[in-house]
Design goal:
single chain, 314 residues, alpha/beta, Rossmann fold, 8-stranded mixed beta sheet, globular, binds adenosine-5'-triphosphate, binds magnesium ion
Length: 314
């Protein structure tokens, strides 16, 4: 892969987007792959990475056969560099790093393996890297989510999915705070808040940070910076009723009120039969149905996310 290799001289880092969601089957993979295609179509050199280490299937929704090399080879140290396992896709400007085969050992890589993978990802030579995360809120998933400049949560208009989204946001937020300081006592204080009910005022993140600040100014400031930089995005997927899309704004308002966290609602995607048709044919939705409602929503969302970088590319 001559055009895309790990950069050894110029330290330019790609912009990383990560797509997660507490619940399985909400559309993470289909949205990741099509956001990646949308970026590629806008001329961005983009690498999609299947970071769902337990159930990799990103290649299928991009419309590719089973890849020869996967992240397993990197995690097992059969290859030293990620560029050795980057595969071209049929879409210009888009490359894929496929997920590990469903081996239990790969689904839960050790801390050092994960940190190495994150380091290598942030050195890839591309304009954008998009990560498809597995479901759940394990530390591995949260750490991939937090390494991204744009963390994107996919939520369905169903109570269980909404509950999972709140849980994910809370878990990711406290994980971010924990990683911001290693001061003794602070980490334990965050753990205590994590298990308490958020409705009690004193346990709010703001109260926690103020508390830490009063004891140790430096640690308090580190937490404040981490909190200010935590700005996840949400997408409401498989919208069926006209009022389903209001949910995005409702979640955003609730996160501000209860957690003091800014969550941006970046768009809704309707329940569109073209998605299932394309997946059944093992093709990308955007490739098969460029005028479908799904495709239009994805373009709108990618444009909105790009504008966060000050990129107004149409
Ligand atoms: N907007 C949509 N309209 C219609 N069907 C959709 C839409 N989004 C997703 N789906 C359906 O949901 C299924 C699951 O999507 P996908 O595999 O992307 O979810 P996932 O969150 O990645 O799941 P997992 O947690 O298992 O990795 C798809 O196969 C498709 O049938
Ligand atoms: Mg998936």
């Amino acid at each position: 892969m001559s055009a895309l290799k790990e950069s050894d001289s110029k330290p330019k880092s790609p912009v990383i987007w990560a797509v997660g969601g507490g619940k399985g089957g909400v559309g993470k993979s289909v949205i990741t792959s099509n956001l990646a295609i949308s970026l590629a179509q806008r001329g961005k050199r983009c690498i999609a990475i299947d970071a769902d280490l337990g159930g990799a299937n990103l290649h299928t929704v991009i419309g590719m056969p089973n890849p020869k090399y996967t992240l397993s080879a990197f995690l097992r140290r059969e290859v030293d560099n990620l560029h050795e396992i980057i595969a071209p896709t049929p879409i210009p400007n888009l490359w894929l790093i496929s997920g590990a085969r469903a081996l239990m050992e790969m689904a839960n890589p050790k801390y050092t393996q994960k940190e190495k993978l994150l380091r290598h990802i942030s050195k890839l030579d591309a304009d954008y890297v998009i990560l498809d995360l597995g479901s759940g809120t394990s530390f591995n998933i949260l750490d991939f989510f937090l390494v991204a400049q744009e963390g994107i949560l996919v939520v369905l208009p169903e109570p269980t999915s909404v509950e999972n989204a709140y849980h994910f946001i809370k878990a990711a937020f406290y994980r971010k705070l924990k990683r911001a300081t290693n001061r003794t006592g602070v980490s334990e204080a965050i753990d205590r808040v994590m298990v308490e009910k958020i409705s009690r005022g004193i346990q709010s993140p703001r109260a926690l940070i103020e508390n830490v600040y009063s004891v140790n100014r430096e640690a308090g400031e580190a937490l404040q910076v981490a909190a200010d930089n935590f700005r996840p995005n949400i997408i409401i997927n498989m919208v069926r009723r006209w009022d389903d899309k209001d949910l995005g704004q409702d979640i955003s308002v609730a996160c501000k009120d209860y957690f003091g966290i800014t969550v941006e609602f970046v768009g809704e995607i309707e329940d569109d039969d073209h998605v299932k048709k394309a997946i059944r044919m093992r093709k990308s939705v955007m490739g098969m149905f460029p005028a479908s409602p799904f495709t239009k929503s994805i373009h709108k969302i990618s444009r909105k996310l790009l504008s966060h970088d000050g990129d107004s590319h149409e």
